[in-house]
Predict the structure.
Amino acid sequence: MSVMQPVVMMQGIVKRFGALVASDHVDLDILPNEIHALLGENGAGKTTLMKILYGLYQPDEGHIVIGGQPARLASPAAAIAHGIGFVSQHFSLVPTLTVAENIVLGYEGGALLDRAAMIASVTDTEQRYGFRVDPNALVRNLSVGQQQRVEILKALYRDCRVLILDEPTAVLTPQDAESLFETLRDLQQKHLSVIIITHKLEEVMAISQRVTVLRQGRVVGRVNTAETSPPQLANLMVGRNTVIVTRNLDHQISPEVALTVDGLRASDRRGVAALRGVTFHVHAGEVVGIAGVAGNGQSELVRILNGMQVPEGGSVVVSGKPVTLGDPRALSRARVGRIPEDRLKGVVGDLNVTHNLTLERIDDYTRAGHLDHKSMRETAERLIHEYQIKAKPYDLARTLSGGNMQKIILARTLSQRPVVVIAAQPTRGLDVGATEYVHQKLLEQKERGAGVLLISEDLDEIMILSDRILVIYEGAIVGEFSAANATVEAIGLLMAGSTARQQTVEALS
Amino acid sequence: MLGFRLERAPAPLWLRGFIPILAILVTFVLVSVLILAAGANPLDTFYQLLILPLTKATSRAEILVKATPLLLTGVAVAFAFASGYYNIGAEGQLYAGATVAAFLGTQLEGVSPLLAIPVMILGGFIAGALWALPSAILKVRLGVDEVVTTLLLNSVMIFFASALLNGPWRDPISNWPQSPTIAASAQFPQLFARTRIHFGFVLAILAVAALWWVFARTRFGLDVRAAGLGSEAARFMGVRVGRVMLLAALISGGVAGVAGVSEVAGTQLHLIEGISPGYGYTAIIIATLGGLTAPGVALAALFLALVDVGILSASRELGIPTYLGEIIQAMLLLVTLALLLLNRYRLRRARA
Ligand SMILES: Nc1ncnc2c1ncn2[C@@H]1O[C@H](COP(=O)(O)OP(=O)(O)O)[C@@H](O)[C@H]1O
Ligand SMILES: [Mg+2]
């Protein structure tokens, strides 16, 4: 058998957004007829890479070869002409138009549409690929799953040979997802190649022939699905950092409970259950890590503990007192130090460093409605010095690097001597030096007796810092490990959703 | 084939300060084309428009008279915009203030001006704030877009004033749609002999100073700016964004209402249809051009007042239509907005 020539080759692709390298010398080849999974955590650079292939972004380096020929993809139109189809995370259908109109929209030339011809050609495409969607139905009357079908049809109508789907199952029920997979297998029979972006391991196992794993913009693994396993993929995806911090192993964890989370229930933005009764506690002087693959309820848990979301049920108790949820001020008053998941939601970029350092405790700097600029500045100077923030008091926060922005949040939060610290993805996107600094600061908090809750997608970070590790999967805590008997393999399996109880028993024994 | 693409990328900070100046230059280049089409020399026109009015004492005074409502509404709009509340309703709020002033003014016969004038101002402020209230509540409680609701309420208020003028307030003798002249004690004093500059100008200066003071010195000003610059992060840090926005919207409406009082009590002495030729809309240009800062608003308001006055003489001398002045103002807004938007993007060469 001859070696199959790839239909698409991306070689040495580099894409920078300012200082951030979203694609770092990525190579990717897609074979004819294959379903290729692109796996990686949130922010790994999957969407960016595919937007480059679809002509939405221009790479800073590297080239693309399609069907053996170098291709210049200056726009989506050029990509479509090269047979690339893209179904994005956010649909781009016009709800008030019919299915056929949506499919033809922007493709057929001429100002006037021949209705009958349009319906005929859409029906023809549907028959060719075995789809059953009424071309005359209004898109707004379709279910999400059907709308996704229309998006796929739209790509097929434009004669795509390589179909890219960006996290297609994120919006689907498990049943719809299964039927989508059926469709993809059909398309494969009809000689299409499919690239499916996902961060769900079981989907990779179910649908793909090959997997490319991305981490922080780099390819960290490429394997045949038949020769891999969910734990191996989880390991690749989460990766290993070589940051070493020294943990004081003699440190005594207090019997006193700093934070109790009881039966939290919440929905995500789509109204799908995201937390299904999450219960745990954190002792004073203890770091509890929550491990899990992105999108299993961590964001909602963090938002609730930050006071930014009201849960549907459950309670949060801080040093023995229940806290009003949905009010950031209440959490602040209860001395919960909050490090948000997204730094840019924790600092106002267009305010200066001084304001960002003092706004949370602005009452302390207010006399009869007027700001005491002098003491605000003094605080800012002290914190800038203490936390080694590379900035001047009156610099705008948005001119700072990610590491220094994170230090603003740390300084503001930790200088208030919190009893509980909620650290969400505290080192995401930071370099090694800044990461180490953040780790040190979190351990200092634990030593001075705060209860630290660490929510991170970086399993190594969790392994290094935590005294106790909880695993979250589909909105529930599915396993618990003490630092002594936690292994990456056992945690990885739970993160991947394999039978929880059995694993825990094995790990604890 | 070489293509260019726009990508999102923050522009350097220093560029921001230049945007208003750049906008004015671009606008004048564009307007030159229209001036040529009208058969005049652009340089002559700009001289008549921008330089000549400054050389004569009478037109300098007229600029300050024109600037009075522009400063007040400019401050009003800038304050709301700064909080992230896009109040397009200053025009209606101005009319609300003017209507209440026209009413109160006739009731204050014989009262000392020291009492009558504060009552007028307070009444106008409350009227403007009340007229701003429904949109603000809808926005803060239900997330209804304030741009739409404040804009709609403008027409309601203007028609309401018109109904009063053509109904109960119609002058019985002349049959003219104008309210009775307000009492002498309620009229704003003139500041200088032989000019129309009145006490309203003092109010306008106070409003600009207050805007500066609030932003530079007060806790509330910081809350407003934080809410406007990043509502999510502001909320995270404990700013009560909804409350702050509501207050900013009401104060904005109130100040716009005072602009109405000032027009009634300072220049017209009664309510007439068209008492504002769109000050509330021009205020949006002023606030945007002025970068939502007090000095910026002051300069922008004075500049637009200069254009307003200058266009009259330019039209007289050179025969160009007066609505060129409005074109300049509208174009300034569009160019400023375009530049602010472009400020966030950068052109990149497309490459494969
Ligand atoms: N247009 C953009 N401007 C700046 N940064 C971006 C842009 N798009 C993506 N990024 C950043 O690039 C990284 C990779 O993002 P993305 O490709 O969306 O990841 P994924 O799809 O794997 O979750 C992230 O850190 C993201 O914040
Ligand atoms: Mg993505």
